Amino acid sequence: MCGIVGYIGEKPVYDILINGLKKLEYRGYDSAGVMIYNNELLIKKSKGKVSNLENLFSNKKDKKGTIGIGHTRWATHGPPNQVNSHPHVSNSGEISLVHNGIIENYDSIKKILLKKGYTFSSDTDSEVLVNLIEDIKKSKKIKLGKAVYYALKQVVGAYAIVAFDSTNPKELVGARLGSPLAIGVGESEYYFGSDATPFLEFTKRCVYLNDNEMVIVNLKKGLTLREIKKDSIIDPYVQELKQDIEDVEKGGYEHFMLKEIFEQPQSITDTFRGRLISPDEKISISSLKRHYETFSSANRIIFISCGTSWHSSLLGEYFFEELLRIPVEVEYASEFRYRNPVINKGDIVIPISQSGETADTLAAIKMAKEKGAFLYGICNVVGSSIARETHTGVYTHAGSEIGVASTKAFSCQISLLLLMGLALGEKLGTIDKKRYQRILNELYELPKTIEKVLKSNSLIESISENYLEAANFLYLGRGYHFPIALEGALKLKEISYIHAEGYPAAEMKHGPIALIDENMPVVVIATKKGNYHKVVSNIMEIKARGGKIIAVVSEGDEEIEQLADHIIEIPNCDELIAPILANIPLQLLSYHIANKKGCDIDQPRNLAKSVTVE
Ligand code: M6R
Predict the structure, then answer these.
(1) What distance in Å separates the CA atoms of residue 60 and residue 254, rounded to the nearest whole number?
(2) Does ligand 1 lie within 6 Å of residue 308's CB atom?
(3) Is the dihedral of CA 601, 14, 163, 243 positive or negative?
(4) Residue 244 pLDDT > 80, yes or no?
């Protein structure tokens, strides 16, 4: 959701900004713009892709300059068009600003500025902010940094901003509250990014801003970090990043999503690294070890999350209740934060998030913390806000996930949840020893087993050919496969724009069965064990009504082979491992359908990778 880049130094800024914006495309956006300073401000903006913006730079002279800011906009206030795109410029033409987030009280500020004679050309809250900064700067006769500081004291909402003042062109000012901002520290040069990917190829030294912090980078004075609430200077913590630029490139695959699907064996290996060293050794998750006591005395565990991470949470509930015998609840963070949930001391709240920046999940964390819950976060992005706001937690280490549709991050989340469930179950004595060992053996082999599942790729691609015209899809699963049915449906919706619903298989007869006819493809997850025979009955009910059946089954299943239109086999395994495997064919099915329909797979319309506004 909105991407920010910036640079100040001695290198030509144009390529840094444009390539940086391209690296942030995965966040989702509908317009793009840059400001380049070369003794005067040059602003270019356009609706649509960054490539449209590049087309505006036919004149080489326009690309000159070594200071600039850039933005990809995901529309909130006002439609996606050239005028609403960022950077926004103050009335005097001196200050330019890029902003990610929402200024909730922009309307009242705008009214005051209108009375003072300010004019506005866009519908955005960001244009109000840049003029507020200008108004303060001029009336108090202060520099940009101080003016930003006073302006941010007045605004309510969320922001990451970078601002530039052409009357003092040696510095850039950034700030954050609720939306991410990273600063790359080079030799006499500084980079800005919504994350580190725009500057990873230039520097690995990075300062992640915390909420309520602002930064001034000045070519002479260096970097100054300030806490806005306390108005105090703080020492910046410069991290050495381990990420490589290859992590954020496609590596020969047509799309990031496909690359990430195929990376899953490696990602899960990374999730397990140091935690599951061998099936003969105890599971070692250091943050869990430190808090076994908290878990063993917990009254209740509450998972909070959104989207795909919510589906992980649901599977987490099934795993944890089975293995730990502790009551578990699963909440949409966006609902949880706005109701008045009962939270007591002794409750453990587990937020799950790939990005670690989802606004609703962050707000729900803050609320649960205030009510006295213990917060144990599960996150992918190292150093993200959710990682910092929780008491402790564990990283999934799935690696950078660029495709908007989450794939490897989900697989790592659910594999980690199962590993945690086993570790805790063993410690609490709530799991049978033989069962523990069997599942642990299978988890250890999981990366290799996933390699086998990925071999179905071409079969799944050929199955997908039959469903390019489908308008609807139904996904059914029972028990551990129900969250996977939900996730399969979400993946298809997100990238192919085909309407899809996930249902617990037995619920079909309570309504959705009315939808089934020869035009309704139904994806059924029907592996052996668990409720297999009941799901076979559901398949018969679909067949009797002419529905098309794509079944994910256990290797060697002959019964469903007779009933289904297409079968996709996964290796025989424990019923707790099966959902992790069954999900992979569903990812590939969505991918191939969307790809053959010509959809924009890595940047589906209207979607953002990290949803940093409500
Ligand atoms: O970064 P998070 O895991 O907190 O994101 C939550 C959802 O926005 C995310 O899972 C979304 O549903 C994805 N596009 C799913 O593919």
Answers:
(1) 31
(2) yes
(3) positive
(4) no
How much is the pTM?
A: 0.79
CA distance 450 to 575: 15
CA of 211 from ligand 1 middle (Å) equals 21
**Which residue bears the tokens 């998972």?**
303
pLDDT tens for 502-544 read 999 989 889 888 889 999 999 999 999 878 988 999 999 999 8
Cβ-Cβ contacts under 8 Å for 7 (sequence gap 6 or more): 13, 16, 17, 20, 66, 67, 68, 189, 190, 191, 192
Atom of ligand 1 nearest to the CA of 610: 1
Which residue, by CA, sits nearest to atom 11 of ligand 1?
307
> How large is the average pLDDT for residues 222-243?
90
pLDDT in tens, 369-399: 999 999 999 999 887 888 889 999 999 999 8
Rounded to the nearest whole angstrom, what is the distance from the C-alpha of residue 521 to the centroid of ligand 1? 25
Residue 496 beta carbon below 6 angstroms from any ligand 1 atom? no
- The span from the CA of 588 to the CA of 26, in Å, is 19
Output DSSP code: residue 469: T
pLDDT above 70: residue 248:
no
| pLDDT tens for each residue of 2-12 | 899 999 999 99
Question: Is ligand 1 within 6 A of the CB of residue 306?
Answer: yes
Q: How far is the CA of 434 from the centre of ligand 1 (A)?
A: 36
Ligand 1, atom 9: closest residue by C-alpha = 307
Helix (H) or strand (E) holding 67: strand 67-73
Q: Is 379 a catalytic residue?
A: no
- Segments of 186-230 assigned E as strands: 190-193, 205-208, 213-218, 222-227
Please pick, among 2, 412, 573, 599, the residue that the annotation labels catalytic. Answer: 2
- Strand, coil or helix: 598: coil
In this prediction, residues 214-218 reach a mean pLDDT of 97
CA distance 464 to 452: 20
Tokens of 554: 């256990």
Instruction: Tell me the percentage of the chain whose pLDDT exceeds 90.
Output: 81
Residues 114, 119, 123, 129, Cα dihedral to 10° = -70
> Is the CB of 179 within 6 Å of ligand 1?
no
Asked if residue 334 has its Cβ within 6 Å of ligand 1, the reply is no
Nearest CA owner, ligand 1 atom 4: 353
Find the mean pLDDT for residues 245-253: 73
Establish whether residue 413 lines the binding site of ligand 1, counting it when its CB lies within 6 angstroms of any ligand atom: no
pLDDT tens, position by position, 402-440? 899 999 999 999 999 999 999 999 999 999 999 999 999
Mean pLDDT of the chain: 93
Q: Does the Cβ of 494 fall within 6 Å of ligand 1?
A: yes
- The active-site residue, picked from 22, 44, 493, 609, is 609
Q: For this structure, is 2 an active site residue?
A: yes
* Nearest atom within ligand 1 for CA of residue 409: 3
Quote the DSSP letter at residue 246.
G
Strand, helix or coil at 27? helix
What structural domains and CATH numbers belong to the chain?
3-245 (3.60.20.10), 250-454 (3.40.50.10490), 455-603 (3.40.50.10490)
